[in-house]
Amino acid sequence: MSEGPLSRAARLLGHREAGHSLAIFRMAVGLIILHMLGALIWTESLAPIWMNPEDGGLRDQKVTQWLAVAVGAPAPSGVLALVAGAAAGALALTVGLGARIGALLTLQCLLALFSVHQSSGGGHDRLILNALWLLVLASSDRSLSLRSRLQTGRWWNDTPVAAWPRWLAVFQICLVYTATGLQKVNPEWFPWGGLEAVYRSLLLPSWARYDLSGWLGDIEPLLQAATALTWLWESSFFLVIAALYWRATRTRPGRARALSNRWDLRRAYLLIGIAMHLGLTALMELGPFGLISMSFYACMLSPDEWSAKLRRS
Amino acid sequence: MSTAPPALPTEPAPPALRVWDWLRLLLISVHIFAITVPAVPSPPSALTPKKLQERGAQQAIGGLSDALGAIGLELSEETLGGLVMTVANGVISAREAASRPFAPYYRHAGTRQSWRMFSRVADRPARLEVHRADGEAWVPLYVALDPEHAWAGRTLRSERFRAMINNFASKSGRTTYLGLVRWLTCRRLEEGHAGERLRVQLRRLAVPSPAVLRARGGLIEKAPYWVEERVVSAEACAPPGLAGPDEDAEGGPPDDGQAPPEGDAP
For residues A122 and B135, what is the distance between their CA atoms, to the nearest angstrom? Predict the structure, then answer.
Protein backbone atom coordinates (compact mmCIF):
# COMPACT_ATOMS: atom_id res chain seq x y z
CA MET A 1 0.00 0.00 0.00
CA SER A 2 1.44 3.38 -0.97
CA GLU A 3 2.04 6.02 1.67
CA GLY A 4 0.06 9.22 2.00
CA PRO A 5 1.63 12.65 1.44
CA LEU A 6 2.25 13.25 5.14
CA SER A 7 4.08 9.97 5.57
CA ARG A 8 6.13 10.66 2.46
CA ALA A 9 6.98 14.14 3.76
CA ALA A 10 7.97 12.73 7.15
CA ARG A 11 10.16 10.15 5.44
CA LEU A 12 11.66 12.69 3.02
CA LEU A 13 12.81 14.86 5.93
CA GLY A 14 14.91 11.95 7.09
CA HIS A 15 17.01 12.18 3.92
CA ARG A 16 20.73 12.42 4.53
CA GLU A 17 23.48 13.69 2.27
CA ALA A 18 27.11 14.80 2.50
CA GLY A 19 27.48 18.10 4.40
CA HIS A 20 29.54 20.07 1.87
CA SER A 21 26.84 22.63 0.98
CA LEU A 22 26.08 23.34 4.63
CA ALA A 23 29.81 23.54 5.37
CA ILE A 24 30.35 26.24 2.74
CA PHE A 25 27.28 28.08 4.03
CA ARG A 26 28.67 27.83 7.59
CA MET A 27 32.09 29.20 6.63
CA ALA A 28 30.57 32.05 4.64
CA VAL A 29 28.28 33.06 7.52
CA GLY A 30 31.17 32.94 10.00
CA LEU A 31 33.38 35.11 7.82
CA ILE A 32 30.60 37.61 7.12
CA ILE A 33 29.93 38.05 10.85
CA LEU A 34 33.63 38.48 11.60
CA HIS A 35 33.81 41.07 8.82
CA MET A 36 30.74 42.86 10.17
CA LEU A 37 32.15 43.01 13.69
CA GLY A 38 35.53 44.12 12.35
CA ALA A 39 33.83 46.90 10.40
CA LEU A 40 32.14 48.14 13.59
CA ILE A 41 35.55 48.52 15.19
CA TRP A 42 37.22 49.96 12.08
CA THR A 43 34.50 52.61 11.65
CA GLU A 44 34.59 53.47 15.37
CA SER A 45 30.84 53.03 15.57
CA LEU A 46 30.66 50.56 18.44
CA ALA A 47 30.51 53.14 21.24
CA PRO A 48 28.25 55.72 19.57
CA ILE A 49 25.66 53.17 18.53
CA TRP A 50 25.50 50.77 21.46
CA MET A 51 26.71 52.61 24.54
CA ASN A 52 25.21 55.32 26.72
CA PRO A 53 26.26 58.98 26.33
CA GLU A 54 28.64 58.90 29.29
CA ASP A 55 30.55 56.18 27.46
CA GLY A 56 30.54 57.87 24.06
CA GLY A 57 27.07 56.82 22.91
CA LEU A 58 24.55 58.90 21.01
CA ARG A 59 21.64 58.33 23.38
CA ASP A 60 20.52 56.46 26.45
CA GLN A 61 19.64 52.91 25.55
CA LYS A 62 16.72 50.99 26.96
CA VAL A 63 17.78 47.39 27.38
CA THR A 64 15.22 44.63 27.87
CA GLN A 65 16.66 41.59 26.05
CA TRP A 66 17.65 38.98 28.63
CA LEU A 67 21.28 38.48 27.60
CA ALA A 68 21.89 42.21 27.11
CA VAL A 69 20.60 42.75 30.64
CA ALA A 70 22.62 39.82 31.99
CA VAL A 71 25.96 41.08 30.64
CA GLY A 72 25.24 44.66 31.67
CA ALA A 73 24.86 46.28 28.22
CA PRO A 74 24.98 49.12 27.27
CA ALA A 75 27.93 49.50 29.65
CA PRO A 76 31.18 49.16 27.68
CA SER A 77 32.05 45.87 29.35
CA GLY A 78 28.65 44.45 28.45
CA VAL A 79 28.77 45.59 24.83
CA LEU A 80 32.32 44.32 24.43
CA ALA A 81 31.34 40.99 25.98
CA LEU A 82 28.56 40.61 23.40
CA VAL A 83 30.91 41.50 20.54
CA ALA A 84 33.57 39.11 21.86
CA GLY A 85 31.01 36.33 22.28
CA ALA A 86 29.67 36.86 18.77
CA ALA A 87 33.21 36.90 17.36
CA ALA A 88 34.20 33.73 19.22
CA GLY A 89 31.12 31.93 17.91
CA ALA A 90 31.74 33.21 14.38
CA LEU A 91 35.31 31.97 14.56
CA ALA A 92 34.06 28.54 15.64
CA LEU A 93 31.73 28.56 12.64
CA THR A 94 34.47 29.61 10.24
CA VAL A 95 36.92 26.92 11.28
CA GLY A 96 34.21 24.33 11.91
CA LEU A 97 34.73 23.29 15.48
CA GLY A 98 31.72 23.22 17.79
CA ALA A 99 29.70 24.85 15.05
CA ARG A 100 26.26 24.35 16.65
CA ILE A 101 27.39 25.89 19.92
CA GLY A 102 29.23 28.62 18.05
CA ALA A 103 26.10 29.43 16.05
CA LEU A 104 23.95 29.51 19.20
CA LEU A 105 26.43 31.76 21.00
CA THR A 106 26.70 34.17 18.09
CA LEU A 107 22.93 34.14 17.58
CA GLN A 108 22.22 35.09 21.17
CA CYS A 109 24.99 37.70 21.35
CA LEU A 110 23.85 39.36 18.12
CA LEU A 111 20.19 39.22 19.17
CA ALA A 112 21.22 41.04 22.34
CA LEU A 113 23.39 43.56 20.51
CA PHE A 114 20.80 44.33 17.83
CA SER A 115 18.14 44.76 20.51
CA VAL A 116 20.09 47.56 22.18
CA HIS A 117 19.83 49.99 19.26
CA GLN A 118 17.22 48.78 16.81
CA SER A 119 17.17 51.76 14.45
CA SER A 120 20.77 51.20 13.36
CA GLY A 121 20.17 47.89 11.64
CA GLY A 122 18.61 46.53 8.52
CA GLY A 123 17.37 43.43 6.78
CA HIS A 124 20.85 41.93 6.93
CA ASP A 125 20.69 41.69 10.73
CA ARG A 126 17.59 39.54 10.52
CA LEU A 127 18.95 37.45 7.67
CA ILE A 128 22.14 36.80 9.67
CA LEU A 129 20.01 35.68 12.62
CA ASN A 130 18.07 33.34 10.35
CA ALA A 131 21.27 31.86 8.98
CA LEU A 132 22.59 31.32 12.51
CA TRP A 133 19.40 29.63 13.65
CA LEU A 134 19.66 27.20 10.72
CA LEU A 135 23.29 26.53 11.65
CA VAL A 136 22.21 25.78 15.23
CA LEU A 137 19.92 23.10 13.79
CA ALA A 138 22.31 21.78 11.14
CA SER A 139 25.26 19.47 11.46
CA SER A 140 27.39 21.80 9.39
CA ASP A 141 30.88 20.93 10.64
CA ARG A 142 31.15 17.39 9.35
CA SER A 143 33.04 18.47 6.25
CA LEU A 144 35.51 21.25 5.43
CA SER A 145 36.08 21.70 9.13
CA LEU A 146 38.64 21.42 11.86
CA ARG A 147 36.35 18.84 13.44
CA SER A 148 36.62 16.63 10.39
CA ARG A 149 40.36 17.12 10.24
CA LEU A 150 40.77 16.15 13.89
CA GLN A 151 38.39 13.19 13.73
CA THR A 152 39.28 11.71 10.36
CA GLY A 153 42.53 13.38 9.30
CA ARG A 154 40.75 14.79 6.24
CA TRP A 155 39.14 18.14 5.50
CA TRP A 156 36.79 16.67 2.94
CA ASN A 157 34.33 14.30 4.56
CA ASP A 158 31.41 12.56 2.88
CA THR A 159 29.72 11.50 6.14
CA PRO A 160 26.00 12.06 5.59
CA VAL A 161 24.11 14.67 7.60
CA ALA A 162 20.44 15.65 7.67
CA ALA A 163 19.49 17.45 4.47
CA TRP A 164 16.48 19.38 5.78
CA PRO A 165 18.47 22.33 7.21
CA ARG A 166 19.86 22.94 3.72
CA TRP A 167 16.34 22.80 2.31
CA LEU A 168 15.16 25.27 4.95
CA ALA A 169 17.99 27.64 3.98
CA VAL A 170 16.82 27.47 0.38
CA PHE A 171 13.24 28.14 1.48
CA GLN A 172 14.40 31.07 3.62
CA ILE A 173 16.20 32.92 0.83
CA CYS A 174 13.36 32.21 -1.61
CA LEU A 175 10.95 33.70 0.94
CA VAL A 176 13.13 36.79 1.39
CA TYR A 177 13.35 37.59 -2.30
CA THR A 178 9.76 36.72 -3.16
CA ALA A 179 8.32 38.66 -0.23
CA THR A 180 10.45 41.72 -0.87
CA GLY A 181 9.51 41.65 -4.55
CA LEU A 182 5.79 41.29 -3.96
CA GLN A 183 5.85 44.17 -1.47
CA LYS A 184 7.26 46.54 -4.06
CA VAL A 185 3.88 47.86 -5.18
CA ASN A 186 4.65 51.56 -5.38
CA PRO A 187 4.53 53.26 -8.76
CA GLU A 188 8.30 53.76 -9.13
CA TRP A 189 8.62 50.00 -9.65
CA PHE A 190 6.19 49.96 -12.58
CA PRO A 191 5.82 51.54 -16.02
CA TRP A 192 3.11 53.93 -14.76
CA GLY A 193 5.65 55.36 -12.32
CA GLY A 194 8.40 55.60 -14.92
CA LEU A 195 10.31 52.53 -13.60
CA GLU A 196 12.40 54.99 -11.58
CA ALA A 197 13.05 52.88 -8.46
CA VAL A 198 16.68 51.95 -9.20
CA TYR A 199 17.40 55.46 -10.46
CA ARG A 200 16.04 56.99 -7.25
CA SER A 201 17.71 54.41 -5.00
CA LEU A 202 21.13 55.16 -6.44
CA LEU A 203 20.61 58.86 -5.68
CA LEU A 204 19.69 58.42 -2.00
CA PRO A 205 22.42 60.06 0.09
CA SER A 206 21.63 57.62 2.91
CA TRP A 207 22.71 54.60 0.89
CA ALA A 208 24.64 55.72 -2.20
CA ARG A 209 28.38 55.16 -2.08
CA TYR A 210 29.09 57.96 -4.58
CA ASP A 211 27.36 61.04 -5.88
CA LEU A 212 26.13 59.78 -9.23
CA SER A 213 23.84 62.71 -9.97
CA GLY A 214 26.18 64.04 -12.67
CA TRP A 215 25.55 61.20 -15.10
CA LEU A 216 22.83 58.90 -13.80
CA GLY A 217 20.21 60.64 -15.92
CA ASP A 218 22.16 59.63 -19.03
CA ILE A 219 21.53 55.92 -18.56
CA GLU A 220 17.81 56.12 -17.88
CA PRO A 221 16.82 53.20 -20.16
CA LEU A 222 19.38 50.94 -18.49
CA LEU A 223 18.08 51.85 -15.04
CA GLN A 224 14.50 51.28 -16.13
CA ALA A 225 15.48 47.84 -17.39
CA ALA A 226 17.28 47.17 -14.08
CA THR A 227 14.15 48.18 -12.17
CA ALA A 228 11.93 45.85 -14.18
CA LEU A 229 14.44 43.01 -13.96
CA THR A 230 14.85 43.44 -10.20
CA TRP A 231 11.10 43.30 -9.62
CA LEU A 232 10.57 40.31 -11.88
CA TRP A 233 13.56 38.43 -10.49
CA GLU A 234 12.60 39.00 -6.86
CA SER A 235 8.87 38.39 -7.25
CA SER A 236 9.37 35.14 -9.14
CA PHE A 237 12.21 33.78 -7.04
CA PHE A 238 9.92 31.09 -5.60
CA LEU A 239 10.38 29.36 -8.95
CA VAL A 240 13.80 28.28 -7.69
CA ILE A 241 12.03 25.91 -5.31
CA ALA A 242 10.13 24.48 -8.26
CA ALA A 243 13.37 24.27 -10.26
CA LEU A 244 15.07 22.34 -7.47
CA TYR A 245 12.10 19.99 -7.20
CA TRP A 246 12.08 19.42 -10.95
CA ARG A 247 15.80 18.77 -10.81
CA ALA A 248 15.37 16.18 -8.08
CA THR A 249 12.60 14.47 -10.08
CA ARG A 250 14.15 14.84 -13.50
CA THR A 251 13.10 11.38 -14.68
CA ARG A 252 9.43 12.25 -14.44
CA PRO A 253 7.56 13.74 -17.43
CA GLY A 254 6.40 17.34 -17.89
CA ARG A 255 7.23 20.20 -20.22
CA ALA A 256 8.04 22.75 -17.46
CA ARG A 257 10.31 20.21 -15.76
CA ALA A 258 12.14 19.46 -19.00
CA LEU A 259 12.57 23.14 -19.83
CA SER A 260 13.78 24.04 -16.34
CA ASN A 261 16.32 21.22 -16.35
CA ARG A 262 17.44 21.97 -19.87
CA TRP A 263 18.23 25.62 -19.11
CA ASP A 264 18.93 25.14 -15.38
CA LEU A 265 16.54 27.83 -14.22
CA ARG A 266 18.18 27.81 -10.79
CA ARG A 267 21.56 28.85 -12.19
CA ALA A 268 19.96 31.70 -14.15
CA TYR A 269 18.41 33.05 -10.94
CA LEU A 270 21.67 32.68 -9.05
CA LEU A 271 23.72 34.42 -11.73
CA ILE A 272 21.30 37.36 -11.81
CA GLY A 273 21.43 37.48 -8.00
CA ILE A 274 25.22 37.55 -7.91
CA ALA A 275 25.36 40.27 -10.57
CA MET A 276 22.71 42.30 -8.74
CA HIS A 277 24.35 42.05 -5.32
CA LEU A 278 27.82 42.83 -6.67
CA GLY A 279 26.46 45.83 -8.56
CA LEU A 280 24.62 47.11 -5.51
CA THR A 281 27.67 46.56 -3.29
CA ALA A 282 29.77 48.58 -5.71
CA LEU A 283 27.34 51.49 -5.87
CA MET A 284 25.64 51.47 -2.46
CA GLU A 285 26.69 50.95 1.15
CA LEU A 286 24.18 48.37 2.33
CA GLY A 287 26.28 46.60 4.92
CA PRO A 288 26.54 42.82 4.70
CA PHE A 289 23.17 42.33 3.02
CA GLY A 290 24.55 41.23 -0.34
CA LEU A 291 27.10 38.90 1.21
CA ILE A 292 24.72 37.22 3.64
CA SER A 293 22.12 36.80 0.90
CA MET A 294 24.66 35.19 -1.40
CA SER A 295 25.86 32.89 1.38
CA PHE A 296 22.47 31.15 1.17
CA TYR A 297 23.21 30.37 -2.48
CA ALA A 298 25.69 27.75 -1.26
CA CYS A 299 22.70 25.67 -0.18
CA MET A 300 21.13 25.78 -3.63
CA LEU A 301 23.88 23.55 -4.96
CA SER A 302 23.75 19.96 -3.81
CA PRO A 303 26.73 18.39 -2.02
CA ASP A 304 27.39 16.32 -5.14
CA GLU A 305 27.57 19.46 -7.25
CA TRP A 306 29.97 21.10 -4.79
CA SER A 307 31.99 17.92 -4.67
CA ALA A 308 32.28 17.83 -8.45
CA LYS A 309 33.16 21.52 -8.64
CA LEU A 310 35.77 21.56 -5.91
CA ARG A 311 37.43 18.32 -6.91
CA ARG A 312 37.57 19.47 -10.52
CA SER A 313 39.22 22.72 -9.51
CA MET B 1 -5.86 -29.21 -9.74
CA SER B 2 -4.51 -25.76 -10.42
CA THR B 3 -1.43 -24.52 -8.72
CA ALA B 4 -1.01 -21.00 -7.37
CA PRO B 5 1.39 -18.78 -9.36
CA PRO B 6 4.73 -18.21 -7.69
CA ALA B 7 4.86 -15.05 -5.57
CA LEU B 8 6.52 -12.05 -7.28
CA PRO B 9 9.56 -10.61 -5.57
CA THR B 10 8.54 -7.41 -3.77
CA GLU B 11 10.55 -4.42 -2.61
CA PRO B 12 11.26 -4.49 1.10
CA ALA B 13 8.81 -2.35 3.00
CA PRO B 14 10.32 0.93 4.21
CA PRO B 15 11.03 1.05 7.89
CA ALA B 16 8.14 2.22 10.02
CA LEU B 17 8.10 5.93 10.79
CA ARG B 18 9.20 6.78 14.30
CA VAL B 19 7.75 9.39 16.62
CA TRP B 20 10.78 11.58 15.90
CA ASP B 21 10.02 11.54 12.16
CA TRP B 22 6.54 12.91 12.83
CA LEU B 23 7.77 15.40 15.41
CA ARG B 24 10.40 16.70 12.99
CA LEU B 25 7.75 17.15 10.30
CA LEU B 26 5.57 19.06 12.74
CA LEU B 27 8.37 21.34 13.97
CA ILE B 28 9.61 22.14 10.46
CA SER B 29 6.05 22.85 9.30
CA VAL B 30 5.50 25.18 12.24
CA HIS B 31 8.80 26.96 11.49
CA ILE B 32 7.87 27.46 7.84
CA PHE B 33 4.45 28.77 8.81
CA ALA B 34 5.94 31.08 11.45
CA ILE B 35 8.44 32.69 9.08
CA THR B 36 6.01 32.93 6.17
CA VAL B 37 3.16 34.66 8.00
CA PRO B 38 5.01 37.95 8.74
CA ALA B 39 6.26 38.03 5.14
CA VAL B 40 2.78 38.02 3.61
CA PRO B 41 2.74 41.19 1.50
CA SER B 42 0.71 44.07 2.87
CA PRO B 43 1.07 47.81 3.47
CA PRO B 44 3.34 48.72 6.42
CA SER B 45 0.32 49.97 8.36
CA ALA B 46 -3.46 50.00 8.04
CA LEU B 47 -4.84 51.91 5.06
CA THR B 48 -7.23 54.78 5.66
CA PRO B 49 -9.25 56.89 3.22
CA LYS B 50 -6.75 59.73 3.87
CA LYS B 51 -3.78 57.54 2.98
CA LEU B 52 -5.53 56.47 -0.20
CA GLN B 53 -5.58 60.12 -1.28
CA GLU B 54 -1.78 60.40 -1.17
CA ARG B 55 -0.05 60.81 -4.50
CA GLY B 56 1.74 57.45 -4.45
CA ALA B 57 -1.43 55.58 -3.52
CA GLN B 58 -3.42 57.37 -6.21
CA GLN B 59 -0.78 56.51 -8.79
CA ALA B 60 -0.74 52.86 -7.72
CA ILE B 61 -4.52 52.57 -7.82
CA GLY B 62 -4.65 54.38 -11.15
CA GLY B 63 -2.07 51.99 -12.58
CA LEU B 64 -3.91 48.97 -11.22
CA SER B 65 -7.22 50.28 -12.57
CA ASP B 66 -5.68 50.70 -16.03
CA ALA B 67 -4.16 47.22 -15.87
CA LEU B 68 -7.49 45.67 -14.89
CA GLY B 69 -9.25 47.70 -17.59
CA ALA B 70 -6.86 46.26 -20.16
CA ILE B 71 -8.12 42.76 -19.36
CA GLY B 72 -11.76 43.82 -19.39
CA LEU B 73 -12.32 44.42 -15.67
CA GLU B 74 -13.67 47.95 -15.49
CA LEU B 75 -13.56 49.32 -11.94
CA SER B 76 -13.63 52.98 -10.99
CA GLU B 77 -10.64 54.19 -9.02
CA GLU B 78 -12.95 54.93 -6.07
CA THR B 79 -14.35 51.39 -6.03
CA LEU B 80 -10.93 49.87 -6.52
CA GLY B 81 -9.50 52.05 -3.73
CA GLY B 82 -12.19 50.82 -1.33
CA LEU B 83 -11.56 47.23 -2.36
CA VAL B 84 -7.80 47.60 -1.90
CA MET B 85 -8.31 49.13 1.55
CA THR B 86 -10.63 46.32 2.67
CA VAL B 87 -8.35 43.56 1.42
CA ALA B 88 -5.12 45.16 2.70
CA ASN B 89 -6.52 45.84 6.16
CA GLY B 90 -7.95 42.34 6.30
CA VAL B 91 -4.55 40.89 5.45
CA ILE B 92 -2.88 43.01 8.14
CA SER B 93 -5.38 41.87 10.79
CA ALA B 94 -5.15 38.22 9.79
CA ARG B 95 -1.36 38.34 9.69
CA GLU B 96 -1.15 39.87 13.14
CA ALA B 97 -3.55 37.33 14.57
CA ALA B 98 -1.72 34.41 12.96
CA SER B 99 1.74 35.56 14.07
CA ARG B 100 0.79 36.44 17.67
CA PRO B 101 1.29 32.89 19.06
CA PHE B 102 4.81 32.85 17.66
CA ALA B 103 5.99 35.99 19.49
CA PRO B 104 8.31 34.07 21.86
CA TYR B 105 9.78 32.12 18.94
CA TYR B 106 10.47 35.35 17.04
CA ARG B 107 12.03 36.90 20.15
CA HIS B 108 14.40 34.05 20.99
CA ALA B 109 15.31 32.83 17.49
CA GLY B 110 15.23 36.20 15.71
CA THR B 111 13.04 34.80 12.96
CA ARG B 112 10.38 37.50 12.50
CA GLN B 113 10.69 39.65 9.43
CA SER B 114 8.43 41.10 6.76
CA TRP B 115 11.24 41.60 4.23
CA ARG B 116 9.73 44.93 3.19
CA MET B 117 12.81 46.49 1.61
CA PHE B 118 12.90 49.50 -0.68
CA SER B 119 9.21 48.95 -1.37
CA ARG B 120 8.88 52.72 -1.56
CA VAL B 121 11.85 54.77 -2.71
CA ALA B 122 11.59 58.42 -1.68
CA ASP B 123 11.98 61.17 -4.22
CA ARG B 124 12.67 63.70 -1.45
CA PRO B 125 15.57 62.33 0.62
CA ALA B 126 17.78 64.32 2.97
CA ARG B 127 21.51 64.80 3.40
CA LEU B 128 23.46 65.27 6.63
CA GLU B 129 25.64 68.39 6.73
CA VAL B 130 28.10 69.57 9.40
CA HIS B 131 29.57 73.09 9.24
CA ARG B 132 31.94 75.13 11.38
CA ALA B 133 31.81 78.88 11.65
CA ASP B 134 34.57 80.93 10.10
CA GLY B 135 33.68 84.49 11.06
CA GLU B 136 30.22 85.05 9.65
CA ALA B 137 30.57 82.28 7.09
CA TRP B 138 29.83 78.58 7.50
CA VAL B 139 32.50 76.22 6.20
CA PRO B 140 31.48 72.64 5.43
CA LEU B 141 33.19 69.93 7.44
CA TYR B 142 31.04 67.02 6.36
CA VAL B 143 28.55 66.77 3.55
CA ALA B 144 27.18 63.33 2.72
CA LEU B 145 28.59 61.98 -0.56
CA ASP B 146 31.01 64.91 -0.91
CA PRO B 147 34.59 63.53 -0.92
CA GLU B 148 35.96 67.05 -0.36
CA HIS B 149 34.14 67.38 2.96
CA ALA B 150 34.48 64.08 4.77
CA TRP B 151 35.35 64.95 8.36
CA ALA B 152 34.40 61.96 10.57
CA GLY B 153 33.37 60.28 7.34
CA ARG B 154 34.63 56.84 8.30
CA THR B 155 32.02 56.75 11.07
CA LEU B 156 29.26 58.85 9.52
CA ARG B 157 29.40 56.86 6.27
CA SER B 158 29.40 53.48 7.98
CA GLU B 159 26.35 51.43 7.23
CA ARG B 160 24.84 51.55 10.73
CA PHE B 161 25.12 55.32 10.91
CA ARG B 162 23.51 55.51 7.49
CA ALA B 163 20.55 53.48 8.78
CA MET B 164 20.07 55.98 11.60
CA ILE B 165 20.52 59.02 9.39
CA ASN B 166 18.08 57.51 6.92
CA ASN B 167 15.40 57.70 9.61
CA PHE B 168 16.08 61.42 10.02
CA ALA B 169 15.01 61.95 6.39
CA SER B 170 11.44 61.31 7.52
CA LYS B 171 11.93 63.44 10.64
CA SER B 172 11.84 60.45 12.93
CA GLY B 173 14.46 59.71 15.58
CA ARG B 174 14.85 63.26 16.88
CA THR B 175 16.31 62.08 20.20
CA THR B 176 19.01 60.12 18.38
CA TYR B 177 19.64 63.13 16.12
CA LEU B 178 20.23 65.42 19.10
CA GLY B 179 22.53 62.74 20.48
CA LEU B 180 24.41 62.78 17.20
CA VAL B 181 24.78 66.57 17.39
CA ARG B 182 26.19 66.23 20.90
CA TRP B 183 28.49 63.40 19.82
CA LEU B 184 29.85 65.48 16.91
CA THR B 185 30.41 68.39 19.32
CA CYS B 186 32.38 66.08 21.64
CA ARG B 187 34.45 64.89 18.76
CA ARG B 188 35.40 68.47 17.82
CA LEU B 189 36.26 69.11 21.46
CA GLU B 190 38.52 66.03 21.57
CA GLU B 191 40.26 67.29 18.44
CA GLY B 192 41.05 70.59 20.15
CA HIS B 193 38.44 72.92 18.70
CA ALA B 194 37.03 74.33 21.95
CA GLY B 195 35.13 77.56 21.38
CA GLU B 196 34.33 76.74 17.76
CA ARG B 197 30.77 77.20 16.55
CA LEU B 198 29.34 74.07 14.98
CA ARG B 199 26.19 73.66 12.92
CA VAL B 200 24.55 70.34 12.13
CA GLN B 201 21.56 70.11 9.80
CA LEU B 202 19.71 67.97 7.32
CA ARG B 203 19.35 69.29 3.80
CA ARG B 204 16.11 68.31 2.08
CA LEU B 205 16.72 67.24 -1.51
CA ALA B 206 14.39 66.55 -4.37
CA VAL B 207 15.15 63.88 -6.96
CA PRO B 208 13.96 65.24 -10.30
CA SER B 209 13.04 63.13 -13.30
CA PRO B 210 16.01 61.76 -15.27
CA ALA B 211 15.41 64.36 -17.99
CA VAL B 212 15.57 67.22 -15.49
CA LEU B 213 18.61 65.69 -13.81
CA ARG B 214 20.38 65.55 -17.16
CA ALA B 215 19.69 69.25 -17.68
CA ARG B 216 20.57 70.29 -14.12
CA GLY B 217 23.48 67.94 -13.48
CA GLY B 218 22.49 67.47 -9.85
CA LEU B 219 19.70 67.05 -7.31
CA ILE B 220 17.47 69.95 -6.30
CA GLU B 221 18.52 71.39 -2.94
CA LYS B 222 15.74 72.57 -0.64
CA ALA B 223 15.78 74.31 2.74
CA PRO B 224 17.58 72.61 5.62
CA TYR B 225 15.72 71.40 8.70
CA TRP B 226 16.64 70.32 12.22
CA VAL B 227 19.31 73.03 12.18
CA GLU B 228 21.27 72.77 15.44
CA GLU B 229 24.07 75.12 16.46
CA ARG B 230 26.49 74.47 19.32
CA VAL B 231 29.56 76.12 20.75
CA VAL B 232 32.14 73.38 21.18
CA SER B 233 32.65 73.10 24.93
CA ALA B 234 32.61 70.63 27.79
CA GLU B 235 29.07 71.78 28.69
CA ALA B 236 27.75 71.16 25.18
CA CYS B 237 29.39 67.77 25.27
CA ALA B 238 27.95 66.71 28.64
CA PRO B 239 25.63 63.69 28.57
CA PRO B 240 21.96 64.61 28.89
CA GLY B 241 21.60 62.28 31.86
CA LEU B 242 18.06 61.14 31.21
CA ALA B 243 16.71 58.82 28.59
CA GLY B 244 14.89 60.66 25.85
CA PRO B 245 11.24 60.07 25.14
CA ASP B 246 10.16 57.38 22.76
CA GLU B 247 11.51 57.98 19.27
CA ASP B 248 8.23 57.43 17.51
CA ALA B 249 6.40 59.81 19.78
CA GLU B 250 8.92 62.51 19.06
CA GLY B 251 9.38 62.11 15.36
CA GLY B 252 6.96 64.31 13.50
CA PRO B 253 5.39 63.38 10.20
CA PRO B 254 7.52 63.88 7.11
CA ASP B 255 7.27 67.45 5.89
CA ASP B 256 6.26 66.30 2.46
CA GLY B 257 3.84 63.63 3.57
CA GLN B 258 6.00 60.90 2.10
CA ALA B 259 7.31 57.77 3.68
CA PRO B 260 11.06 57.81 4.08
CA PRO B 261 13.32 55.62 2.04
CA GLU B 262 13.14 52.45 4.07
CA GLY B 263 15.97 51.49 6.30
CA ASP B 264 16.36 48.02 4.99
CA ALA B 265 18.73 47.03 2.30
CA PRO B 266 17.42 45.55 -0.92
Answer: 41
Residues B104, B137 share a domain: no
Say yes or no: B45 and B92 in one domain: yes
pLDDT band at B6 (very low <50, low <70, confident <90, very high): low
Return the pLDDT at B4: 60
* Residue B226 burial (C-beta neighbours within 10 Å; 0-12, 13-18, 19+): middle
Contact: A285, B157; criterion CB under 8 Å: yes
The DSSP output letter for A208 is: B
Same domain, B87 and B133: no
The arithmetic mean of pLDDT across residues A242-246, rounded, is 93
Structural domain ending residue among the three candidates B83, B109, B135: B109
Size of interface A-B (CB pairs under 8 A): 257
Question: Residues of A numbered 171-210 whose beta carbons fall under 8 angstroms of chain B's beta carbons: which are they?
Answer: 171-172, 175-176, 179-180, 182-188, 190-194, 196-197, 199-201, 203-208, 210
Query: Where in chain A are the domains?
Result: 17-162, 163-313
pLDDT given for residue B50 in this prediction: 87
State the residue range of the domain holding B95. Answer: 20-109
* DSSP 8-state secondary structure symbol assigned to residue B150: B
| pLDDT recorded at residue B70 | 85
Residues B135 and B86 in one domain: no
Query: For residues A233 and A272, is the Cβ–Cβ distance under 8 A?
Result: yes
Number of domains in chain B: 2
Beta strands in chain B, from DSSP E residues, in sequence order = 126-134, 137-143, 197-206, 220-231
